Amino acid sequence: MSPELFIQYLFAGITYGIIYAIVAIGFNIIYNTTGIINFAQGEFVMLGGMTAITMTAFMPMPLAIAVAVLITMVVGALIEMVFIRWLQSPSVLRMIIITIGISILAREAALHIWGESVRALPYFIGNEVTSVSILGARISPQVLWVIGVCSLMVACLSLFFKFTSLGREMRACAANRRAATLCGINAKNMVTLSFVLSAGIGAVAGCVMSPITYSDYEMGPGLAIKGFTVAILGGLGNSLAAVAAGLLLGIIEAFSVSVLPLAFQDAIATSILLVILFIRPHGLFGSSEAASLKEF
Amino acid sequence: MDLLKRYIPVLFLLALVVAVQLVTHFTETTYYLTQLTMSAYYSVVVIGLCVLMGYCGQISLGHAGFFAIGGYLAGALTTHNLMSFRDHGLVAVLDRIGLLVAGKDLYGGDLLTVEPWAACITAVLTAGLIAMAIGGPVLKLKGHYLAMATLGFGIIIFRIALASAYFGEADGISEVPAFRLLPGIDISGSFGARILNYYIAWVVVIVAIILLLNLIHSRVGRALRAIHGAEEAANAMGVNTSRYKLYIFVLSAVFAALAGVLVTHYNGGIGPSEAGIMKSVRYVAIVAVGGMANIWGALIMGVVLNFLSLRGVFGSYDDAVFGVILIVIMLFAPQGILKINPWQQLKSFLPLFAEQSGEETPE
């Protein structure tokens, strides 16, 4: 493999990897505040991308993206308020089935609104053939957009959780919900907020990735399973580890194309998921003692 | 006496099956029998999954995968021509012991394919062995991890079916021959065999039901209920929980694979959509509506919902209907619609209006 080709694959891997990481962080935010794995996480990415594509017909693209992200956040809030807020300590099985139901509904709604056609946002800079040269490899500027925007989101999220009062309140709920409630934190609102946040970052990822990966109504489940793989790989609930795990999975996938037919690419991610679940369910970076205390 | 009580519903079902056939005969609506036959086969998957979910408390989002293993293997083995491998040692041996059948294709060319019985047994055994192999590690997982692991298994099977030329890629396998159970009794979609096939399917369902009923009322069944109630307690009482869970997982996989084999012969083909995630979710939805741990509920819902879906009643909202069913049932009646207790519902609704702590029924 020539060095240029190597860098080409590497960037492809990083691009997909960081998107998987964003989906995984979406899983983590909701998991941390509620203990729920939201199987509809991939649908947020789909909704963000598809809404933005529709909105570009009426307004300039940056505005369209902002509106799409806002709409997806509202959808996230609505989902939490309608389906989850009023359930009292539901069993895990019940929550799994409900969120799967939500993901089906979102997908079917998208199918009836947008149809089966594959769409894409226009490139943010230039077009399909525009490229910049990095170490001899030709990279689309959109790839740099994806990497830049997603990295910025990760950085902002960690700052948000560390230094703002709201972020601290959310972490308090994650650590001990009852104690947080006793301190005057409204835990239910924190749960709604976690849905809004993870819908928002999913939608942003859905918009920046749309020009290169395209959007269609059924992109959600594929992304969700990879995002989940990444979340598990990094250790459920650990967002920074999710970034590392995301990059790892993305790069493995990108290089697997040079060995195996493209059709098997999804099977690789899923096999990694199974192997990780079987041998290290607490993730590459997590500790098994901590994991055994959590309830899955 | 107890035994009689257990089998009365079975006799009732038998009578109903015959009655439905007679009604369709006299009202000249025999075309319904085709969908009823298909629904019956899908219900075999559902009742197997019902025991796994209801009695073991283990969710599986990968049962369409087992269905597909059965269907695809049976389809591929009975369709692919082995004529060009005739001189190969293995093929020669199989031929000599009578596991292969020779025939003519549409153009008069020589065909050499695997005998449907042998293909069926191979397919079901393979599904059982795969279930046994993955069941060990998978069933150690709980909750979300278990759901995702089984979902992942389903996706891998779907991808393999979609990506390998042997299984026909996106087109699936077609022109699967009839399955001769006994001389004169074929499983096939031919017009004349419609009534016969209707009865074959329902006999399969009834045998499956009797098997499961006996299982739940045996020592194994009691162990299963103990596992569902409190796994640690069951373990402490000396119940080998992991062995029983694996046992039921394999059993339900075998049921799904068998249904896959029979549906493939009945339809004369199978496509990748049978292996899709939505199919697995659909089976789970049906079990949820019928009520976990309620074989009769699962059977009724399996037949009703599959029948409506196959008749195309839901139109392009087919998947959406199952999504709504899942959400509504899990929100308002996690015990299944046959067990709705209005008073309990009212109580669990109260917190919506007043911040009162009602108690959630455990499941």
Reading the helices and strands of chain B in chain order gives HHHHEEHHEEEHHHHEHHHH
What is the string of helix and strand elements of chain A?
HHHHEEHHHHHHHH
CA radius of gyration of chain B is: 22 Å
H/I helix tally of chain B: 14
Report on the biggest sheet of chain B.
Answer: 2 strands, antiparallel
Q: What is the domain tally of chain A?
A: 1
What topology, given as strand order, has the largest sheet of chain A? 1-2
Query: Approximately how much beta-strand content do the residues of chain B carry?
Result: 5-15%
How many separate domains of chain B? 2
The CA-CA distance between the termini of chain A, in Å, is: 43 Å
Question: What summary fits the major beta sheet of chain A?
Answer: 2 strands, antiparallel
Biggest protein-protein contact in the assembly: A-B, 42 and 52 residues
Radius of gyration of chain A: 19 Å
Residue-averaged pLDDT of chain B: 82
Number of strands of chain B: 6
- Strand content range of chain A: under 5%
Could you write a compact summary of the structure shown?
The complex is a heterodimer of chains A (296) and B (363). With 296 residues, chain A is mostly helical.
Key descriptive features of the protein:
heterodimer; A: 296 residues; mainly alpha; 73% helix; globular; B: 363 residues; 2 domains; two-stranded antiparallel sheet; 14 helices; disordered C terminus
